[in-house]
Amino acid sequence: MEAVINIPISQTAKESVTAEQMIVFEDVSKFYGEILGVNRVNLQIAPGITSLVGPNGSGKTTLMNLMTGLIQPTRGRVKVLDYSANDPEIFFRKVGYCSQFDSFPAGHTGYEFVYSYLRVHGYAKNDADRMTARAIERVGLTEAAKRKVAGYSKGMRQRIRLAQSIAHQPSVIVLDEPLNGLDPMARAEAIRLFRELADEGLHLIISSHILHEVNKMSDRVIFIKEGYIKAEGEVQGVRNELEEHPLQIVVRCDQPSFLATKLFAEPHIVEVHIHDDRKGLFVKTRNTDKFYDLLNRVVVTSDLNIETVATVDNDLNAVYHYLIGARQEGE
């Protein structure tokens, strides 16, 4: 098995997060008969937004189902804060789950869908009414709350499921493809809500294939493929650990040939190409710190003028490509 690239949380975060605030996987494996779900998973997930990234069938849903107590591991232990799935009445008050699949009681309005969920879990009528109204307001469906869910658009159904998952004010919210079906404005509002909930100290575990939006909203990312965790940590930290994949940088300047001769002399430079328009160059380096230090020295000691410097692949799409071995559909 390949080693997992593990970028730990910062020392400041470690000092502020107790064991009771972590979601912990200890050597967890889940098999469905002879079919592997996940294998030998060891994770510690702190509060904030953690995104699960991987191709279909990679094990993302298995990880989420283990966190929500819907399935039990074949081997190992899953600890969700201080709550035990063996005590479902307490556990399900502390964990919210938003599936990507539609499953609505026939004839229910959006309000009834959320309200009935709270009542089943023992909330008094007045509390359930107040909490339902608040959750529906937070997802922007107040005006449609009394309409039947059967008449909702796909995006509205997604938002009412999200309202149900947050209505009971859980400490952990697990969201399976929560941005599916949302238009750009609704996606932006959903991401704003996720950030707001994370800032309140909640855990949000999000599965999504919309990589550029995952890149914007996530505090950390877990890359999974074929049931194995390939890497986990902040996107920048994971990218910095990929030494076998040099960082690609574009430099726009007025003397690309002169800069290229300076770069070629450095052992950390893997490749340099001058742009066809002769107004810049493309660089691959194994050491970004040394590259930027060299660039600064060249600028100070010459009349080279730099217009822009930009990394080409320092984002989630690039890390996904390196670790998972496939580019996002449409690229």
Features of this protein?
single chain; 331 residues; alpha/beta; Rossmann fold; Alpha-Beta Plaits; four-stranded antiparallel beta sheet; 14 strands; disordered C terminus
Q: In short, what is this structure?
A:
The protein has twelve helices and 14 strands. It is an alpha/beta fold.
Describe this protein's structure.
The chain contains twelve helices and 14 strands. The protein has 331 residues and is α/β, with parallel strands linked by helices. It has two domains: 5-240, P-loop containing nucleotide triphosphate hydrolases (Rossmann fold, 3-Layer(aba) Sandwich), CATH 3.40.50.300; 246-312, Alpha-Beta Plaits (2-Layer Sandwich). The strands form three sheets. It has a seven-stranded mixed sheet, sandwiched between helices. A hairpin with a 2-residue loop joins strand 2 (23-32) and strand 3 (35-45).
SSE arrangement:
Elements: E1 5-6, H1 11-16, E2 23-32, E3 35-45, E4 48-53, H2 60-67, E5 75-80, H3 88-94, E6 95-98, H4 110-120, H5 125-138, H6 154-167, E7 172-176, H7 184-199, E8 203-207, H8 211-217, E9 220-225, E10 228-233, H9 235-241, E11 247-253, H10 256-264, E12 269-274, E13 280-285, H11 288-301, E14 306-311, H12 316-324
Helix pairs in contact: 4-5, 4-6, 5-6
